[in-house]
Design goal:
The longest helix is centred in the middle third of the chain and has 11 residues. This protein is an alpha+beta fold and 328 residues long. It is built from nine helices and 14 strands. The protein is globular, with a radius of gyration of 23 Å. The strands form four sheets. Strands 1, 3, 4, 5, 6, 7, 10 and 11 form an eight-stranded antiparallel sheet that branches. Helices cover 18% and strands 24% of the residues. A hairpin with a 6-residue loop joins strand 3 and strand 4. It has one domain: Pnp Oxidase, Chain A (Roll), CATH 2.30.110.10. Its cofactor is FMN. This is Flavin reductase like domain-containing protein. Belongs to the flavoredoxin family.
Length: 328
């Protein structure tokens, strides 16, 4: 049962001891290199804020609806059967598609960024807390290039724009210390989490600007966010740097793989077996395109079909069975 208490329980993942960490060394003398397009030029193309006066636009919108609670609905077509295809009656087949070459001549790389963040939605947000190896500096920042990739061992990925030569505080700290905490952003601290995305100079605290509360961790030195309902302590497993195709000779991205070493879940969100988090309590925030974010207030359940039960024993479904390469 879920309790009404607001303290946290930390869970030890059922894994073998942490794997040896593979980290690439960064020095304190990291410098920002000159790239073909400046950050200001890139931001102009991205048009992250399409509103001349955002606060004026925001003031004209409906207020946040606090009454919305997590609910589970039916699927669009509960009576769907094998062979039915899309549930829109074929309407989606009538609209043509546009083919886009991500590397066509004259297409800025930031166009791919803008396209992808508006098409791969919703995306989970990894709210990353890091500390420099010597403990002199901390960083707190949200990342939507974030995902869980496996459970045994618990592995997560975070993508960074730019190579090691352009590393910002979060990547510097992660590589130097080999540690971090991944926090999941919930509705009750979304504004504070967003404040940490400010481009503060190295050494200035995003914690104090946000007003969020650092809490001690168990296996890493970086603090977890106490307001977060779910947090994951992690050790850096590996990094990989990628070369730019838009600007040959330059590095454009770093992928970090992190192994979870401790889980922290607020007690009112976890079940008795400590293996299920209640979405009605977690209320996670997701990233959409541009500067738009999403709430998670509605879901649906759908059974994963079993071939023997739903196809082999179904005469109508068996008639639809064809070799994989036929017409594909």
């Amino acid at each position: 049962m879920l309790t009404g208490r607001s303290t946290h329980t930390f869970l030890r993942p059922f894994i073998q001891p942490p794997l040896p960490r593979v980290a690439q060394t960064l020095t304190r003398s990291l410098r920002i290199s000159r790239v073909a397009m400046s950050r200001a030029e890139a931001e102009k193309l991205i048009q992250r804020n399409p509103h001349p006066d955002f606060k004026k636009v925001e003031a004209g919108r409906e207020a946040w609806d606090k009454s919305l609670e997590w609910s589970v609905k039916q699927t669009i077509k509960p009576d769907w059967k094998y062979g039915d295809g899309a549930n829109d009656g074929g309407a989606s087949l009538k609209i043509p598609h546009v083919e886009i070459d991500p590397h066509e001549e004259g297409r800025p790389a930031v166009f791919n960024y803008k396209l992808l963040i508006s098409g791969i939605i919703p995306r989970p947000i990894g709210f990353l807390s890091t500390r420099s190896k010597d403990g002199s500096s901390t960083n707190l920042a949200p990342f939507s290039w974030f995902q869980m990739i496996t459970h045994d061992p618990p592995l997560f990925t975070i993508g960074y724009a730019g190579g090691f030569d352009k590393a910002k505080d979060s990547l510097k700290n992660l590589v130097e210390s080999g540690e971090c905490v991944i926090n999941i952003i919930s509705e009750h601290f979304v504004e504070a989490a967003n404040a940490t995305s400010v481009n503060a100079p190295y050494g200035e605290s995003e914690w104090s600007l946000s007003g969020l509360t650092p809490a001690p961790s168990s296996t890493v030195k970086a603090s977890r966010v106490k307001e977060a309902i779910f947090s994951i302590e992690g050790k850096l497993e590996s990094t990989r740097e990628f070369a730019s195709k838009a600007n040959p000779g330059k590095k454009s991205a770093v992928l970090a793989t992190i192994e979870g070493t401790r889980f922290w879940v607020r007690e009112d969100a976890i079940n008795g077996d400590k293996n299920l988090i209640d979405p009605a309590v977690l209320k996670p925030i997701s990233r959409l395109g541009g500067m738009t974010y999403g709430r998670t207030t509605e879901g649906f359940e759908i059974l994963r079909p079993d071939y023997e039960e739903t196809v082999a024993k179904n005469e109508e479904a068996r008639k639809l069975v064809k070799p994989k390469l036929e017409g594909q």
